[in-house]
Amino acid sequence: MAEDSDLEKTESATPRRRQKAREEGQVARSRELVSFALLSAGFFGAWGLSGQIGGHLEGMLRSSLTFDHATVFETRRALIGAGAASMEGLKALAPLLFLTGVAALVAPIALGGWLLSSKSLEPKWNKLNPISGLGRIFSPNGVLQLGMALAKTLVVGVIGTLAVWNHKDDVLALVTQPMAVALASTGHLIAVCCAMTVAGMFLIAALDVPYQIWQYEKKLRMTKEEVKREHRENEGDPHVKGRIRAQQRAAARRRMMQHVPKADVVVTNPTHFAVALQYTDGKMRAPKVVAKGVNLVAARIRDLATENNVPLLEAPPLARALYYNVRLDAEVPGVLYGAVAEVLAWVYQLRRFNTHGGAVPVRPSDLDVPAELDKRGPAADEDDDIEDIEDVEEIDPQARGNGRGNNGGNSSSRNDGGRA
């Protein structure tokens, strides 16, 4: 049952499905709306422009029926007269043709919008298959289209018959009326019949337009499996995205770890937190955090620091304050200048001791760390360290390359005299 429900097209079309259908030339269209628009434009155009059209037609008839002996026997003059009559006829019909042309363009756009698709012009050989053609004819949609055509013919025929029947006395009286009166009466009868026909076509179009919209929406419906597949194509498979995200995080951690050998000191918790600080006099306004992490990442930072002779200092309050309040590649805030200055002073003394000997420098303790900074911040997760790295790389794309290019040979580029 579940498989059958997945095969049923019960879901509304997605925006991508609609866009693809438009690219293929599939939009809602109503032939009856176009027919109604053409009849309305023709009727109201002829009615509104009857004076102008009558004037041009009168001129055409006058020039056609007025001729002399020379015109009859000279082909050139006869052709000139025919050309002039044709121009008068064109001038008479040009406004009406323009109105019907505009109606033919606007009616489809009003329902399905403007669409130019080359795919709809491509030849489809399957439409030449007589078997599939018979299938379309006897399909529910084909039967309905046939019913609509018959209904349209029936409506127009009934309306025309009723119009003539209701005015049968006027029609019979035309033969007894003077020419001018008879022509005016004939025009009035034609206008009434046309108006009733347009009204009937309006009813047919009013029924066909909602049906065509419903039929179009039904055709675009999707199964639940199609919606899921499209969602995966748009958003990506969650499992694949998870693996990509994990690989990105691993690469980001590796890039961050490449900065640890260049650090001046690593402040630890001692086990849960590790923050690497770096300061270059004359190039930096203040010390900055070049690496930080918790748990396994912190252990890896400590191991790298030990391998590259970077001093480790156990200062839990300062380590937590730096981890929670300073982003990667950001400078230490002013409230921590004093505590970080004591740490760097101890590092410089340690370097001097390693180079020249003397008294062993005393590790700093009781560092001045504000209580409001020594508390759990917005996050304490290894993934947050990676988000910091990615933020830095978005702001400074060179950070990615710099981290990779400076891997290895770091101690030789520093004038620190050695490590503890």
From TrEMBL:
Q: Where is this region: Disordered?
A: 1-25, 359-420
Q: Would the keyword Disulfide bond turn up in this protein's UniProt record? A: no
Q: What's the protein's topology in the membrane?
A: Multi-pass membrane protein
Judging by the UniProt lineage, the source's domain of life is Bacteria
Where does the chain cross the membrane?
Answer: 33-53, 96-116, 137-165, 185-211
Q: Which Pfam families does this UniProt record tie to the protein? A: Bac_export_2
Keyword list (alphabetical) reads: Bacterial flagellum biogenesis, Bacterial flagellum protein export, Cell membrane, Cell projection, Cilium, Flagellum, Membrane, Protein transport, Transmembrane, Transmembrane helix, Transport
Q: Which cellular compartments is it found in?
A: Cell membrane
Q: Which InterPro entries match?
A: FlhB, T3SS_substrate_exporter, T3SS_substrate_exporter_C
Positions with biased composition (Low complexity): 409-420
Q: What is its main location?
A: membrane
Stretches with biased composition (Acidic residues):
380-396
Checking PANTHER family in the record gives:
FLAGELLAR BIOSYNTHETIC PROTEIN FLHB (PTHR30531)
Q: What does this protein do?
A: Required for formation of the rod structure in the basal body of the flagellar apparatus. Together with FliI and FliH, may constitute the export apparatus of flagellin.
Write out the similarity annotation. Belongs to the type III secretion exporter family.
In Swiss-Prot or TrEMBL terms, this protein is called Flagellar biosynthetic protein FlhB
